[in-house]
């Protein structure tokens, strides 16, 4: 996970750099991928709009545990010192006041440091959704300050970009450029932060939704949706989100990792409970009103009843095979549609 763009604002009012130009992702041009990966980021999909979470959501809140521990440890020490100074005095009033001033001066930078990072996630928003409207070709981005960016799909400069972290994580940035086509005025990220090849698969999922007639097939590729729409996550989903396994081989590490997952899930839950639910403005809701007879409508309401089986990669063989066959058929159909339209260009 990278919090670049949340703790530290994106760099703007600058020219595009060489990497951004080299890794540009073009609208109207299919990427060469085998799979179309939604990375479990889809909140809702229908034939009018696709709504996703932001790139911070997958592990959102889990990094606050260190800052919370530091902050409340300092508070506890301070309270204990005050109690000891006033109720179990060993010095006079003057000496006690001097000690309190010294302690306050010494600890205040740590309070500011931990509090700053805590308040970047606590008491903010539960997530920062992005909505893609395929009917009017507009993109709506819920900014971290609560305002909404509305921009035409074709006017966004998309690019893969390396995250400024030690891990080899990449994300997809959307730049809003000045009239010169070179100066970055604003930046946002799509809802994925992972390896480079997966970000390309994610891009193609989004691009196909906006530009190709394959919405039912894309909907078939969604295994579950985060329950983020108009509500806050409960502790159970916070834990399920962190535990989600790609295969049963990951069971080997579960006994060691479970305590860490529990602590991280609790930290994520606090972020969810204290967060505000993002609300789209009326003009966005009106522009994205779906057809009541739309055959495609997938959201958290369609999540599997036996969610824990999915989380632990423990579905029955028949259920797994049926799901695999369905997703494979959808993937092959999307490739057939793209091949028919673009021929040898893919």
TrEMBL record:
Transmembrane segments: 66-88, 100-119, 251-270
Keywords, in A-Z order: Membrane, Transmembrane, Transmembrane helix
Lineage: superkingdom: Bacteria
Pfam family, one: DUF6708
DUF6708 domain boundaries: 112-290
Alphabetical list of InterPro entries matching this protein: DUF6708
Signal peptide region: none
Name of this protein: DUF6708 domain-containing protein
Protein source organism: Mangrovibacter phragmitis
């Amino acid at each position: 996970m990278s919090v670049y763009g949340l703790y530290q604002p994106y760099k703007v009012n600058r020219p595009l750099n060489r990497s951004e130009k080299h890794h540009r992702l073009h609208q109207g041009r299919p990427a060469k991928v085998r799979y179309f990966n939604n990375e479990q980021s889809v909140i809702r999909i229908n034939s009018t709009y696709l709504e996703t979470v932001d790139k911070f959501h997958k592990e959102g809140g889990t990094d606050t545990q260190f800052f919370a521990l530091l902050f409340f440890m300092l508070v506890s020490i301070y309270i204990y010192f005050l109690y000891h100074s006033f109720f179990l005095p060993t010095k006079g009033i003057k000496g006690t006041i001097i000690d309190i001033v010294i302690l306050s001066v010494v600890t205040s930078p740590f309070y500011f440091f931990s509090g700053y990072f805590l308040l970047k996630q606590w008491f903010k928003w539960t997530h920062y959704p992005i909505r893609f409207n395929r009917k009017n070709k507009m993109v709506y981005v819920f900014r971290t300050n609560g305002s909404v960016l509305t921009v035409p799909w074709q006017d966004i400069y998309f690019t893969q970009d390396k995250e400024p972290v030690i891990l080899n994580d990449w994300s997809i940035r959307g730049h809003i450029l000045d009239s010169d086509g070179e100066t970055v005025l604003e930046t946002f990220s799509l809802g994925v932060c992972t390896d480079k090849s997966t970000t390309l698969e994610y891009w193609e999922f989004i691009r196909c939704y906006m530009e190709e007639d394959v919405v039912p097939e894309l909907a078939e590729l969604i295994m579950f949706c985060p329950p983020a729409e108009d509500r806050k996550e409960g502790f159970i989903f916070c834990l399920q989100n962190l535990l989600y396994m790609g295969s049963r081989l990951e069971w080997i590490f579960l006994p060691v990792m479970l305590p860490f997952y529990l602590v991280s899930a609790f930290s994520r839950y606090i972020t969810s409970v204290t967060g505000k639910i993002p609300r789209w403005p009326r003009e966005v809701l009106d522009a994205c009103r779906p057809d009541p007879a739309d055959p495609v409508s997938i959201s958290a309401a369609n999540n599997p009843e036996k969610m824990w089986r999915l989380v632990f990669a423990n579905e029955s063989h028949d259920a797994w095979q049926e799901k695999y066959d369905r997703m494979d058929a959808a993937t092959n159909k999307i490739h057939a549609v793209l091949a028919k339209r673009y021929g040898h260009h893919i």
